[in-house]
Design brief:
By secondary structure, the chain is mainly α. It has three domains: about 200 residues, no CATH class; about 160 residues, no CATH class; about 120 residues, no CATH class. It has a two-stranded antiparallel ribbon with strand order 1-2.
Length: about 500
């Protein structure tokens, strides 16, 4: 039951009605918990076992660590007059070691499941290839494992919670049902954003939804749905058509790569908008996940704007613990490469994702060493061209899971071999999708930047004037209805509606 299906729309309406009609406001969260499990079980009851395992192991591990930390503080206070500084230090270290053992255990268990289910076949395939080339007999069997939906998202969420409890940044949630609600929240379970517990801790039990919150959430949901159905799906069919061609020109290959770049942006950001909108309708304020990344002037800036929740997760729980930029330039560059190899693997169990991660790791290292300083001195439009050129190449690597096909496609893009510059296919595809491409470019621009710069009088800006005007107050619900009706019409009449995040 994907977000962009009629079934989900009916499900969402029923859940919303049940939530606001629930007789005891204090326990409205139970509606979300039940709905979240129904949503997840709809895909397959087999997936629930993994979700429950993660929920229970993380819940009890966090309680143990929190109790340990609390006991340590109480014991030190109790013996404050008896123990000297060294004794207190030794006791703290002893208790910390116990917490660390629990942390390591729960990390190994849950990341172990994720790694096994997601990457075993990648490992097995690599080993079998090595054995074959080495002339050795035998092989590792390829397992046909079902990857639970959203396993990467909920694993990363729960592990951040565990680490935060270990660090003492949040208190362990004592109510297991409340914690289960956090783990399974259906608005963002299968496509993100990655929601850290500390950002929704208070909202899990104490939420107040105003009419303004609900309307803003509904509008945000409609925008996300329109981005997915009216933009991503439509340009995605162009990418599918081009990628299936046996022969193509340089221009056609670039047009296909551009099409996929637009598809994955409006698809992913559309899902994030829907999740953020649904969350707000139920009283949750999820953090933003995209900030017009195609307006970036550098690759560094691009990754500050794209999938912000994932970038933040790796920065907080991998990059900084590895030493960040605190241990010299060489170590910093090493940390960047480690993070980006892991980022690549997070996206999928194919070698192209590893290559994609290394690609961005190298680019970010080069920018860190010297290129950022050069780019800062150049006009913004040069930075935009530079950034989009490299991003489009990156998405080409990302899209092609077959390494041989990837190599052939990249060769075509750069005119290597006997390849025509343009052909009739290019003219046909460009002419058929010209209006759509213009709409995609227009929708990728953050007009608020300029609207906030333009003044109307001494204090008011164009943005403030429009945002607070009666005209916009009337236009928003009208736009919402239009987005929903047109999107529904396309969902009913169009069979092309891919779900790009099955591997996550």
């Amino acid at each position: 039951m994907g977000y962009t299906t009629i079934t989900f729309m009916i499900f969402m309406l029923l859940v919303t009605a049940a939530y606001y009609m629930f007789p005891v406001k204090k326990y409205q969260w139970t509606v979300l918990l039940v709905a979240s499990y129904i949503f997840y079980l709809w895909a397959s009851w087999k997936y629930a076992a993994f979700l429950l395992f993660t929920t229970f192991t993380v819940y009890f591990a966090a309680l143990i660590m929190y109790k340990n930390s609390k006991t340590a503080k109480e014991t030190i206070v109790l013996h404050s007059g008896e123990w000297d500084r060294e004794q207190k230090k030794q006791y703290k270290e002893e208790m910390k070691r116990k917490r660390r053992k629990v942390l390591i255990m729960v990390l190994v268990l849950n990341f172990g499941i994720l790694i096994f289910l997601k990457y075993f076949n990648l490992f097995a395939g690599g080993m079998n290839s090595f054995l074959e080339k080495s002339g050795m007999t035998g092989s590792i069997p390829i397992l046909h494992l079902a990857l639970p939906l959203g396993i990467s998202f909920y694993t990363f969420q729960t592990m951040s919670y565990t680490i935060d409890v270990y660090r003492g940044e949040v208190a362990a949630q004592k109510n297991i049902l409340t914690f289960a609600t956090y783990v399974t929240l259906f608005p963002q379970l299968i496509a993100g954003p990655i929601v850290q517990y500390k950002t929704v801790e208070k909202e899990l039990m104490h939420r107040k939804v105003t009419l303004e919150d609900f309307s803003e959430g509904a509008f945000r949901f409609s925008v996300g749905l329109a981005k997915k159905v009216l933009l991503a799906n439509q340009i995605g069919s162009l990418w599918d058509s081009i990628s299936q061609l046996n022969h193509m020109s340089v221009a056609t290959a670039w047009l296909g790569a551009i099409a996929y770049s637009f598809q994955i942006y409006f698809d992913f950001s559309g899902y994030s908008d829907m999740a953020i909108g649904l969350g707000r309708m139920f009283g949750f304020y999820f953090l933003e996940n995209f900030n017009f990344p195609y307006m970036s002037k550098t690759i560094t800036e691009f990754w500050r704007r794209w999938h912000i929740s994932l970038s933040s997760w790796f920065r907080e729980y991998v990059y900084i613990p590895l030493g960040g930029n605190r241990k010299g330039l060489v170590r910093q560059l090493f940390n960047i490469m480690v993070v980006w190899m892991l980022t690549g693997l997070w996206h999928g169990a194919n070698w192209n994702f590893v290559l994609w991660g290394v690609y961005y790791g190298v680019l970010l290292m080069i920018e860190k060493l010297f290129l950022l300083k050069w780019l800062d001195k150049l006009p913004n439009w040069i930075g935009h061209i530079y950034s989009m050129f490299l991003v489009i190449i990156g998405w080409t690597i990302f899209a092609q899971t077959d390494i041989h096909q990837l190599g052939g496609y990249l060769k075509t893009m750069f005119g290597i071999g006997h390849v025509a510059v343009a052909d009739s296919d290019f003219l046909y595809f460009l002419g058929s999708n010209a209006v759509l491409l213009v709409a995609l470019i227009a929708a990728s621009i953050d007009y608020r930047v300029w609207m906030r710069r333009l003044k109307l009088g001494k204090d008011a800006t164009v943005y403030d004037t429009i945002a607070t005007s009666k005209g916009w107050t009337i236009a928003k619900p009208v736009l919402m209805v239009v987005f929903l009706l047109v999107s529904f019409a396309f969902l009913v009449g169009d069979s092309y509606n891919p779900f790009l995040y099955f591997r996550f």
